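Hi C.,

You asked whether I'd gotten around to modeling the 193-residue construct. I have! Everything is below, sequence then structure, no commentary in between.
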Amino acid sequence: MIAVFTTSRVAAKYRALSLVSGLLALALVLKFFEIPYPPAPFLKYDVSGVPLAVIAYYSLKYAFSSLPVFYVIPVLFGSDVVGMAMKCLAEASTFTPLVLVYKKGASRLSEKWRAGLAVAAASLTRVVVMSIANYTVTPHWLVWSYKMSYEKAYELTLYYMPHIALFNFTIALIVAPLSLAVMAVMRRAGYLE
């Protein structure tokens, strides 16, 4: 009896490891397929947040444990250190409210209402968190990377803030519903509880 229980626990851990590793690898591959946001080409659309959100649905602990790997691999391949840190923050600020509202939201609400509230929470959280982060970090990053004066960097940051907010809103509106659709398919297939 104990051997069967232990074996099933070990099998569950390997299953979780396989699922998380596969989704993390997919997120890393998708990270390299980027489309520039036209008004501010340094901002790039990608759907690497979808596999990360699925990991978060499976376990927030695993999602946050996956972020360092999601950060390091692109940096090793030449991605900007600060840009990848901001990307990780952006994805975490999207998948955390998405999963919390969707999974733990009011159970009396229909599936469509919960999904709508989860997408709205994810979009709003991402815009607020990333607006604050960009307002705080971007001027210093511009001074560090481009050797411009702080005043010029601050002025440039303020100029791009509306574009940054709009970009984060639109990418959240792409990633959040797509993540919920993938989660629904994976639940029906038996990969997610």
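If it helps when you're writing up: The mean pLDDT is 91.

Thanks,
B.
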